[in-house]
Structures
1.
Amino acid sequence: MLQTFSQYIDGAFEPGSTHFDSVDPATGEPWARMPAATAEDVDRAVRAAHRALHAPAWSGLTATARGKLLARLAELVSRDAPLLAELETRDTGKVIRETRAQIGYVAEYYRYYAGLADKLEGRHLPVDKADMEAYTRREPLGVVAAIVPWNSQLFLSAVKLGPALAAGCTVVLKASEEGPAPLLAFAKLVHEAGFPPGVLNVITGFGEACGQALTSHPLVDKVAFTGGPDTARHIVRNTAENLADTSLELGGKSPVIVFDDVDVDSASNSIVAGIFGASGQSCVAGSRLLVQRGVADRLLGVLADKAARIRIGAPGDPATEMGPLATRKQIAHIERTVQASVDAGARLVCGGRAPEGFAADSHYFAPTILDCPHADVPSVRTEFFGPVLSVLRFDTEAEAIALANDSAYGLAAGVFTTNLARGHRLVRALRTGIVWVNTYRVVSPIVPFGGFGLSGLGREGGMEAALAYTRTKSVWINTSDAPIPDPFVMR
Ligand code: NAD
């Protein structure tokens, strides 16, 4: 018997008129029935969000009251974090030790934006006209279409919903068709927190019927998207119609640069976490290791040892460190690219296939390291979204910077060095939206997140993100009591 989930539109839970089955990646078997939103459902959800935007139940709330609703939502996410973590693990195969830690932290994003709601201030302007006052107001941008990919859906939606709701926007959130269970369950918490109907609607479905209808809808004012660059291009084409604002958080091929002055063992722990954490299914996966020649062989040896010791197993087992990948389609892409890289001269240090004890057609893929002779090996440029590390060697700092910047992406970079001056030089030289020095994959609601180049547009996190969900209204006030002169009488 499949478990059934509902969509949430205009404050009501609905079974949906069409459905699809969600597959448990650990078993490859369907386990739940999801509603697939149709274009008609999308239209109702957007219209509900548009009505709610202007209804006094939401637009009449003070910013402080909006913040209190967000704080309540944060409490409920904390309360139900174990349940949400189980659902995410079941539906996406992300291991339970990671979903528990991540969803516990998701509540902090709602708490942070709860506190920011009444701090989005306009400005008084010292205008250059006598008898005039001018000021700006920060008003909600409008109806937001938030679209997330299958990995870390609760986290990737919190970085959109938190700032959007703090700013007074209303939202239609589209969960991914792969693994939507945690977001459909989260809708119940939105309801329980007491948000007025239509302020936040949660649907799921496929790109064409659901995503396209949503992003091209005439009543949508902003699309906040996380996903792949090809989908982002569709969205940008769709928003040519409604001229909606967009923020795009896309993929990456993030370099981790290791100089020969570091403690190799300590750096290797960050590198392993950066590429094999979440089975490499992370936009900020540190998938290109650039290592100074003097420590390259030693570091590769340590990494291969640590990769071999990673506990691979059932995602629901708290001892499991690496679980399955979400879809077979993704594994096929990884296998093809690994093979093409070996054909192009890369040496397979470890992995490259299903791990020992797992069937070749399972959703599992072993931690893989490719020692690459040059930067034109396919694995150096292609985003795997899986547990594959491509290694290149360098001699000088200038060479490391050139290799790091030789990418169409620019999401994140890691630098490992004990030379403080060099650390700062690299921070300046790297063309990425995030630079981690002697650490990797650390995030916080307080710090903006986003990329350069093909990695996207706009930032999530921090005050910057909240302001991006507002628009400025400029106000002029004539403070003179003198009658306004007739403009057509010559003086
Ligand atoms: P995807 O682009 O295939 O899908 C993302 C979402 O877009 C899904 O909800 C999908 O239904 C929807 N969609 C598909 N076609 C659409 C269309 N025509 N119009 C509107 N919406 C449409 O991505 P994916 O395979 O689910 O996720 C993996 C990608 O996400 C990777 O490239 C990864 O790097 C990226 N990612 C980025 C970040 C980040 O913060 N930068 C975080 C996680 C993942």
2.
Amino acid sequence: MNPSIAVLAGDGIGPEVMAQTLRVLQQVAPQITTKHGLIGGAAYCQYKSHFPTATKQLIDVCDAVLFGSVGGPIEAAEQPQWKNCEVNSILALRNHLKLAINSRPAKFYPALKDISPLKNERLEACDEILILRELLGDVYFGEKRTYTANGYKIAEDTAKYDENQIAQVAHHAFKIAATRKQQVVSVDKANVLDTSKLWRQVFQQVAKQYPEITLTHMLVDNCAMQLILNPAQFDVIATSNLFGDILSDAASALPGSLGMMPSASFSSKGFGLYEPSGGSAPDIAGQNKANPMAQILSLAMMLRHSFDLHTEANAIEKAIENTLDAGFRTQDIMQVGRRAVGTQAFTDEILHHL
Ligand code: IPM
Ligand code: MG
């Protein structure tokens, strides 16, 4: 039977970058069937729920999920359509599918070296930094409460990890590192946090099974600084949920724009959800301005990891590089002397180079 994927475009720029991405899918792997579902604010309009049962049922019969983005404008955050939208949709979805590991590659493109905030000599030694992020633990999923005591409001978020959760990320990191530069930097805050002390211990323990890999530990504050001072020292970074959220945004800015960073999330059974690392960008939604690269590269990750379609995935990545080399730019990566194009025309060029 042909594989099928759940397509959840979501909100903001999600639908427009997804529409372009499906053109690419149609060209390289038309045998894959797409089934569309609603999530986020878009789902709320129809079902009064950010993650309706209909969408759960759709996902449960598909082989992978291609996700857009969710969330509304900050100024509308208290409206029912947007209130707790991210928590109720993408976090609930990660939990529903038990997506324990998130993989975010920040790739450096030679054609974009002048829009990077880094000096060229720092950038030239960089190829790709892969951030592996634990996705189901930490303050994201620990107990939360807001209450009043002695006339004050108090809020609590509990960070919690068990050793199996950490070991799963460690094994994944070492296996990936074996196919790359044989090095893993594990990032924590072990000088302060118990969860980080456990994180470090588990990484050291698991590392014994991978003697060919060099494991180093770095404190998260130092890592934030090192990413900017000397990004070329990193290949695979493995870290907890909250630190991974922050460091992956920081790393994505180094090549030039968050709009270029895809991501893949996996369950222990290997089920995959693929989504841009960035958000729904409501300020530019519906204007044909968004960079479709993150969504299209997420598709490439899906073809490679969920369907073993390596040739197709490589072809998409190459077509994107060629499009950049040919001088086409969306507004977020625009440079003097290059051709500014919209979401659709940029995708036309990718299709042309495929
Ligand atoms: C991300 C996003 C999400 C996260 C938000 C939307 C809940 O920032 O995927 O990085 O914090 O995980
Ligand atoms: Mg984030």
3.
Amino acid sequence: MQTVSRLLLRSSAGKQAFSRSISRCKSSGSPWAAYEMAPLDPIIGLNEQYQKDDFPQKVIVGVGAYRDDVGKPYVLPCVREAEQKMMYAHLDMEYSGIAGDPTFVDLALKFGYGEDSDAMKENRIQGVQALSGTGGLRVMGEMLRKHGHKHIYVPNPTWGNHIPIFTNSGLEVKKYSYYDASNSSLAFDNMVKDFKEMPEGSAVLLHACAHNPTGMDPTLEQWKQLSELIKKQKLLPFFDCAYQGFASGNHATDAASIRMFVEDGHTLAMVQSFSKNFGLYGHRIGALSVVGADEDEAKRVVSQMKMVIRPMYSNPPRHGARIVSTVLSDPKLSQDFKDQCAGMAERINTMRIALRSSLEATGTSRPWDHITKQIGMFAFSGLTKEEVTNMRDIHHIYCTMDGRISMAGVTSDNVDYIANAIHDVSK
Ligand code: PLA
């Protein structure tokens, strides 16, 4: 009790909240009386606003969750087939180990790093099952902090949740230049400049592909330069691989940056999410791994991950791991997965072309070519906060305040409506 009070009283905000809490408790008698209503989440909170809107043509292009061309959630047929197989196998419902399902972890790492990776063959890559990308990021953040890291660098801009995930892990979040909004391109020179100024040993978060929210990735030549620079500066690269397969449609192509770094001899970390590529959003399935100097080193790091996981959530859920393992261990289902993942990426690209041409047909004076230059799940439209608010208030179209549009929510039916609304708020 005393320790909690002392912790709360450490910051002035904490002090204020604490004294508010005491005085409200005294007046109402409830220990919850002083709890303020928290703001809606900037991404997931949009769903709540959208649900309440009764306008018939309302559109949600907020959260990056794939929809088919009639706007419905999509379960990959290979996932359905895997579930059928699992049902007849009468599997038990025992606890997983702290590190999760070892068969899944092995298959996930091969999926990310490539079966032919020398580091894989040398057992220098070890990992754990994670509560999808978010859970893996949090475990990594916590582990880094426990092992002496004070800060982590993330791109500016980055996925909004990266910042609270790492802050809540006890790390200071620093930003490196990434995007030049004035011409919708990668700010590569500034990025290099910032990397050169990072203190030795700093952890630096890199989006493996399909950067969220900008949809702009370094070219392979630029990745090579970054790889050399990161090595020279003795930084710790940490790849967030949340969209493997969504950029090019091919999961091996989309892992090129990571595979290049491993080949270049980096010791690094990676978090993988199977939310988007396998469409397993609600199953919270991912992996967190490291490439060590040798097998023993990698295993020691994994043992420390387990020390973070056990008191946090004990062990991860089984179902998603079993689905991914069933698909990836079956040649036919693996091929089906590749085709179905490519199909999702293709539909998104078709919608990029459709949105751009529909915008251009409005007689707009703004350039919209960046929509087809960008890749992955999102279009970083360039709409201002005010324009985004007007999209919502006037046209009932919900995208995030930074002007990010989830292309996965754009369909043949709503694309013209979205384009006309964008034109209306931006002309
Ligand atoms: N990393 C990045 C770069 C992401 O964009 C997301 C999800 C995650 C990790 C985590 O996803 P997971 O925990 O489901 O694996 N970003 C979404 C969803 C798609 C969200 O905000 O939670 C987005 O709309 O940005």
4.
Amino acid sequence: MTTATPVPANEAVLHEALTGLTTAPQKTLPPWLFYDERGSRLFEQITTLPEYYLTRTERALFAAHADDILSTTTSDNLTIAELGAGTATKTGILLRAALRRQPKLLYQPIDVSSSALAAESLTLPGLTIHPQVANYITERYTLQRPDSPKLEGHSEQGSRPRILALYIGSSIGNFSPTEAHTILHNLRQHLQPGDALLLGADLAPGPQKPIATILSAYDDAAGVTAAFNLNILTRLNRELDADFNLAAFAHRARWNAAESRIEMHLESLRPQTVTIPTNDEIHHIAFEQGETIHTENSYKFTPEALTTLLTNSNFTPTRTFHDPTQTFALTLAHTL
Ligand code: AVJ
């Protein structure tokens, strides 16, 4: 027990912990719990690790193809929306490219966390930012469309108001195929014919992409990913007054071939019992030696799986950009 002023128990965190840690046979915690202040900083650090190829590969694709991506949307009256918004550097490349094609641009990032949105401190001449705090999986959100052009001075074709929606950073990889379908299907409801989606997804292992490369991205030599994973227990200790012994759990990354995903787990190194107090009782959570808490899935997609996901959600894939060794894909899809 701490002697400091107790932190008010966050109901959502408590609910996730009690349900996830009493689920047999596999204990689970949801990945959104990673992103407290320290976790968000650790994730930023992960994106700069030599093993974590995802961010730099996607950024290079943005840099190489920003103009192609924008010219495919055939509009100089575009607004850019983004699901999730922890990506200012990458998005900035596209926003700058859009501002070379039109004098003004509205950027609409949508994120569950207002702090992630506040971090979008992009200031570019002509850029207006309308951030929105919403859980884009479960809650409604709105996408604003640019005003229709005044008749004079605009070519009919070039000036139709269009939305380009970004869902990048392989964020979609955290979700099961069913959830991923729901997210894209909901997004599709906000779009009209002629709008577009740019989806950034990490690719499945292949001839030029060994499983070991993917695994080391989730189990780096410096131990940053381990610290990121274990931080979820630090958070439960702090916010729920739980008593996880961090030295008694170890970070594990596994490749699940049947599901085409990396799984992150926290493995109990010995038999132990952890307690979580609530108002009316103290919950005892027993761990066997070797038992794990499953904390994250990162799905890796074959090009065919991406096509299926997009077409099932009523998008038509129009162009794919990937690096020479097929590690990461940016897929541009349109709404017909
Ligand atoms: C933010 C979900 C894209 O799955 O690669 C990084 C999170 N987890 N290292 C990913 C993460 C461990 C990341 N995403």
